[in-house]
Design brief:
The complex is a heterodimer of chains A (346) and B (384). Chain A is α/β, with parallel strands linked by helices and 346 residues long. Chain A folds into 3 domains: 5-194, Rossmann fold (3-Layer(aba) Sandwich), CATH 3.40.50.620; 208-263, Roll (SH3 type barrels); 270-345, Beta Barrel (Elongation Factor Tu (Ef-tu), domain 3), CATH 2.40.30. Helix content of chain A is 26%, strand content 28%. Chain A has helices at residues 14-25, 49-62, 73-89, 96-115, 145-148, 153-156, 168-177, 199-206; strands spanning 5-9, 29-36, 66-71, 120-122, 128-129, 134-135, 159-160, 212-216, 222-226, 249-254, 259-263, 272-283, 291-297, 305-310, 315-323, 330-335, 338-345. In chain A, strands 12-15-14-13-16-17 form a 6-stranded antiparallel barrel. A 5-stranded parallel sheet of chain A has the order 3-2-1-4-7, sandwiched between helices. A 4-stranded mixed sheet of chain A has the order 9-8-11-10, with no helix packed on it. In chain A, α1 packs across α7. The longest helix of chain A is centred in the first third of the chain and has 20 residues, at 96-115. Chain B has 384 residues and is an alpha/beta fold. Chain B folds into 2 domains: 2-9 and 256-375, Aspartate Aminotransferase, domain 1 (Alpha-Beta Complex), CATH 3.90.1150.10; 14-251, Type I PLP-dependent aspartate aminotransferase-like (Major domain) (Aspartate Aminotransferase, domain 2), CATH 3.40.640. Chain B has 13 helices and 12 strands. Chain B has helices at residues 14-25, 36-55, 69-76, 93-100, 118-124, 147-163, 187-190, 239-275, 303-311, 322-325, 332-336, 341-345, 358-382, and strands at residues 2-3, 63-66, 84-88, 104-108, 129-133, 171-175, 194-198, 209-213, 281-282, 293-297, 315-316, 347-351. In chain B, the strands form 3 sheets. A 7-stranded mixed sheet of chain B has the order 2-8-7-6-5-3-4, sandwiched between helices. In chain B, strands 9-10-12 form a 3-stranded antiparallel sheet. Chain B has a two-stranded parallel ribbon with strand order 1-11. The radius of gyration of chain B is 22 Å and the shape is globular. Chain B starts with a strand and ends with a helix. The chains are: A alpha/beta (346), B alpha/beta (384). The interface between A and B is small, with 11 and 11 residues.
Chain lengths: 346, 384
């Protein structure tokens, strides 16, 4: 192993910092890389990229690592941000982090790293790999395979996840022992490129506000107005600007008429489905049969549920009814520890 | 701790803190109120302004107290009424930002030491220019500008306009944030129209500044409010801050010549240690440089890495101006004196001050050299 060149994506957080030390201890020649992605300052919210860059570089210097900055601003804007905006405008609820991993971190970053002489790449994600398979992290609560299911197989074969075998608490403790300045840093929340921004504030910068009606699904009664159906996600409870009585849940959106249909009845049949149609399904590895028994996660950290995937129709049949999934969201498949793929809700 | 970034911030002295303390909980009264304890505060506030003004050879009533140099600069640029302005190519970002909102702005070139090119100024001082703004000393190089000579050129242009019957006035503003306490700043000798002062760089509190304004300069408010500071800057007076500023200014004046000598000696010690590395280039012209500045250039080295290495040794230095460095932008000043991007990346700004001692200089010098050697070794290793 000794002497192999690893390009490690360093975000300025604790996980990639500890990853750097682990790789260095293992005898790799580590090159720290900060990926500068597209960022936009919103009023009252500042994207902390400059601080993150300094934090990442500080750790690299402490460990005496070479450090580089890859500027992916343009590509990020095109591949991730524009995709996200387009999806929202269609009424979907996309996951930009999944897109970012697929298009930037495990594609563009890998390409440039290999061009610059990398033998392997690494990131601070909580996941594991045996070279061929993507495996759940040891710390189930931190497992990030949900965000990684779409990454390229060939890249995965050359990827290391140094903290994937550790518990988060161990990672934090290690960072403190190593006296990393980032040891106590809180985890970044929200969409990475807008910092702490509320996704609604972000969208409002790009999409014209179009007010529309909120109607009760059972009675078609007009309950109030909203400022754009794109801001609402199926199953969502908050943000309906309705002050009366019990909470309402979004059960349907009519994007053409810009109407949001809601219900107070959590058991409303539109909210519960025993199957879901997927698109862009990918499977990692070879599977002979048309139907696959899988466990699925419908969002990051969601409880695993049993389902049957029909590969031909790309329809997923749940063992038990599930709360409706928003179009654009990802459903990720597991068999045991293996993350075997996933698809996007139609 | 070895603190070598006095150009960025200075610690508030004991004496200044003590002077300020009383105005927070005891003599907290609004200086505009009618009762006696408040009028006493008003008098003390005016006296503090006089103390500040006296150091620069002016009167307290001609000072507009502000929230710092940035606000003073904003106020000074009100005199330009957004017409044509001229600034040096190495001004602080606050000056540049104000110039950019003018109808037209141009930059005066500087030489390789960062000194304003007077011939270029003569060429660019057109009849449309309303305001010229040049800092007393560069915040990155410490280069002291020939303000009095610039003022002569401005004066000649003013006279020309009068004889030609042109009505357009012309003003000269000088940002003296850097240099106060290390060079004598007297308005009659500088012959300027407006002068920006900053408490935070002379061991006074942050968030306190002043703009001295000559009588003939017409200004409009920078903060609209209750008529304070000649109605140019509304808001209840920052009594504690201004008192602190006054004490800091007095202290600075009192110790100026001794401190200048002491720091000049310290700088020589550090320079000597650093000279052991023949690759290190000292920037600026030492004959026309603030004595506390030692900007250096270390070819091929990434200076930011040195900052992170040195901070682990409890030594604090900086690259370029703190404001522009943190945003990942290249220093305009270093570009203006002709450095390449790679050279800029290898530039370190060392600035001494009250917290610096002779022993510090030797320790810091050795540790800087060690950090440089380590970086060179790392680079040599990864090129194999």
């Amino acid at each position: 192993m000794c002497g192999k060149k690893v390009f490690l994506g360093m975000s300025g957080g604790v996980d990639s910092a500890v990853s750097a030390q682990i790789l260095k201890d293992a005898g790799y020649e580590v090159i720290g890389v900060y990926m500068k992605n597209w960022s936009k300052d919103l009023p009252g919210m500042k994207c902390p990229w400059a601080e993150d860059l300094a934090d990442a570089k500080r750790v690299a210097v402490q460990l005496d690592l070479d450090f580089r900055v890859f500027d992916f601003e343009q590509e990020y804007k095109q591949k991730v941000v524009d995709y996200m905006l387009a999806e929202y405008q269609k009424g979907n609820t996309p996951n930009p982090d999944i897109m970012c991993n697929q298009e930037i971190k495990f594609k563009l970053f890998a390409e440039v790293a290999f061009e610059q002489g990398a033998d392997l790449i690494a990131t601070g994600h909580y996941a594991r790999t045996d070279g061929a398979n993507l495996l759940k992290a040891v710390d189930e609560n931190k497992d990030q395979t949900y965000f990684l299911y779409r990454i390229d197989e060939e890249v995965l074969a050359k990827t290391l996840f140094p903290v994937g075998g550790m518990m988060k608490v161990e990672v934090k403790q290690r960072a403190a022992e190593l006296e990393f300045a980032v040891a106590g840093k809180s985890e970044s929340m929200g969409v990475c490129f807008v910092g702490e921004a509320n996704i609604k504030d972000f969208l409002a910068e790009f999409v014209e506000q179009r007010s529309g009606e909120i109607r009760e699904v059972e009675t078609d009664r007009l309950l109030g107005m909203h400022d754009g159906a794109i801001y609402y996600t199926l199953g969502q409870r908050h943000g309906l600007n309705l002050t009366i009585g019990l909470p309402y849940y979004v059960v349907r959106k009519d994007m053409e008429k810009n109407i949001v249909y809601v219900s107070q009845d959590l058991n409303n049949e539109e909210l519960w489905k025993d199957e879901v149609g997927l698109r862009d399904v990918i499977l990692r590895g070879y599977f002979g049969e048309n139907t696959l028994d899988v466990e699925v996660r419908v969002r990051h950290r969601a409880v695993l549920v049993s389902a049957k995937l029909n590969r031909a129709t790309e329809v997923l049949e749940f063992a038990e009814k599930q709360k409706a999934l928003a179009p654009g969201q990802s459903v990720v498949f597991y068999q045991g520890d293996k993350c075997i793929g996933g698809g996007i809700v139609e | 701790m070895i603190y070598l970034d006095h150009a960025a911030a200075t610690p508030v002295s004991e004496k200044v803190m003590r002077a300020m303390q009383r105005y927070y909980a005891e003599d907290f009264f609004n200086p505009s109120a009618a009762y006696l304890p408040a009028t006493k505060v008003r008098k003390e506030y005016e006296a503090a302004k006089d103390m500040i003004a006296q150091v620069i050879g002016a009167k307290g009533v001609d000072l507009v107290m502000t929230s710092g140099a940035t606000e003073s600069i904003n106020l000074a640029f009100r005199a330009a009424e957004r017409r044509s302005v001229l600034i040096s190519a190495i001004e602080h970002p606050a000056v540049l930002a104000n110039a950019k909102v003018a109808a037209h702005y141009d930059e005066i070139n500087v030489d390789k030491f960062g000194r304003v090119d007077l011939d270029d100024l003569r060429k660019k001082i057109s009849p449309e220019i309303r305001l010229i703004s040049v800092g007393l000393a560069s915040g990155e190089l410490g280069t002291i500008q020939p303000i009095a000579e610039i003022a002569e050129i401005v004066k000649a242009e003013r006279q020309r306009r009068v004889s030609a019957g042109e009505g357009n006035p012309i003003y000269l503003h000088c940002d003296a944030s850097q240099g106060l306490g290390l060079v004598e700043v007297k308005i009659n000798r500088l012959n300027i129209d407006m002068l920006t002062l900053n408490a935070a760089k002379v061991y006074g509190p942050k968030g306190v500044g002043a703009l001295w304004v000559a009588h003939h300069v017409k200004l409009t408010p920078v903060v609209f409010g209750g008529g304070q500071e000649r109605a140019l800057r509304g808001g209840t007076e920052n009594v504690a801050g201004v008192v602190g500023f006054a004490v800091a200014m007095q202290e600075a004046e009192k110790h100026l010549s001794a401190e200048k000598k002491r720091i000049a000696k310290l700088r020589e010690i550090l320079k000597k240690v650093l000279s052991e590395d023949e690759a290190i280039v000292f920037l600026g012209n030492p004959k026309r440089q603030l004595v506390n500045f030692l900007p250096i250039l270390i070819p091929v080295i990434d200076a930011e890495r040195l900052i992170f290495k040195l901070e682990r040794e409890d030594i604090y230095v900086s690259t370029g101006a703190a404001c522009s460095a943190s945003k990942g932008e290249k220093s305009r000043t270093l570009k203006a004196i002709g450095l390449s991007d790679e050279e800029i990346a290898g530039s370190l700004r060392i600035s001494l001050g009250k917290l610096t001692s002779g022993d510090d200089m030797r320790v810091a010098g050795e540790l800087i050299l060690k950090a440089v050697r380590e970086e060179r070794d790392r680079l040599a290793g990864s090129n194999k």
